[in-house]
Design goal:
374 residues, alpha/beta, FAD/NAD(P)-binding domain, D-Amino Acid Oxidase, Chain A, domain 2, eight-stranded mixed sheet, 30% helix, binds flavin-adenine dinucleotide
Length: 374
Amino acid sequence: MTVSVWQEIPEPIQAEHDDVVIGAGIVGSYTATCLRERGRDVALVDARFPAAGASGRNAGFVLTAQRETYPELIRQVGREAAREILAMVRDNVTRMRTLAKGFNVPLEEGAIHLAETAAEARELEHWARELEADGTTVEFAHRDPYGTGYAAMMQVENDCMVHPARLTEAIAAASGVTLYDHNEVYAIEPASDHLIVRGRRVHIRCRQVYIATNGYSADLHPYLRRIVRPVRGQILVTTPVQCILSVAGITENHYFRQLPDGRLLIGGARAFFEAQEYTAEDTVTPNLHVNLANYLRHWFPDVEFEIERQWAGIHGFTPDRRVAIGFIPNEKRIAFAVGFSGYGNSIGLVAAERMVELAMDDRDAGPLSALRFP
Ligand SMILES: Cc1cc2nc3c(=O)[nH]c(=O)nc-3n(C[C@H](O)[C@H](O)[C@H](O)COP(=O)(O)OP(=O)(O)OC[C@H]3O[C@@H](n4cnc5c(N)ncnc54)[C@H](O)[C@@H]3O)c2cc1C
């Protein structure tokens, strides 16, 4: 997104705050919460409204084990750093549960990783053993929880499902900060002793900026274009059907859950349409949705359904699929936490807190530091 000269209101509101957080998704809303708890005067700004982006469009899975798998993470960063990231994710999952319960946001227990083939079952078992070795309680079994032909399953303690938009809205509302919605930011201008954040409706003078715009970051600063790439994700929801999923499922390429009212939600399939999904356009494409519907028909052939709703959202992916927390080069007054690569519910809260600690306490973000991208 960008802002034309015609779209800016004639005399934008002039405001002043200690800090400006750009993006009112789950990450920006929790960043605002952390700053407010430290006594800062905070403005939370969004181009649209809280949860307008991926935080209000995702599937609501809160997972300890991410699809890129723990053995792969160990290979990438080494055992010690992988263990550190795992501890952050476990902490994040616990915080998500606490917040959802505290705000009375719907939460469903459990989510199961599934293997479709014997080869995938071997990988899943290896994944389970590595998680166990680093202190996570995991159940692995050559069992199909739905009785439709899956080869194996893995369930990790504490995993759950939330209503992602309600949770983000609740965090934003409870933060107690000043919200400027429908205020797309088009420039962050550093001056000697302050910064000016220029938005369509409000211009804010402040001392520190926190960027939490994930997949939409490219137009905000050229440096972010280098480390976070927009990637579309798409979801389909059916009309209500009889209860077929006792618990939500995740496979190599798909994820699905049954909502409390019986509707089935399914997403994923991006790997089959990779080239078309590297985009910031949140439009629905028929080819990917045929794949999603056919997946349900293949694995749950007895279920008759109509398609009720389809939507798309924009993720932000880093090259190594790990969130990047850092400062804009040579500008410590602009911090960012972007590139959640499909797992903002798993690590977004802790990443927000680490971004605040980086800016206020000079605490390095460890294995999530953006310094790994030269
Ligand atoms: C289809 C789909 C399914 C997903 N499923 C899951 C899942 O089940 N589990 C999981 O953990 N993750 C999932 N994700 C990923 C997850 O949604 C994200 O990682 C997470 O929401 C990122 O949160 P965020 O706050 O960083 O970004 P966002 O929620 O995208 O928030 C960014 C905000 O910034 C605002 N903004 C952008 N540019 C500007 C600007 N210039 N000025 C002002 N405001 C601006 C936007 O309006 C938006 O509200 C999914 C993503 C998609 C797209």
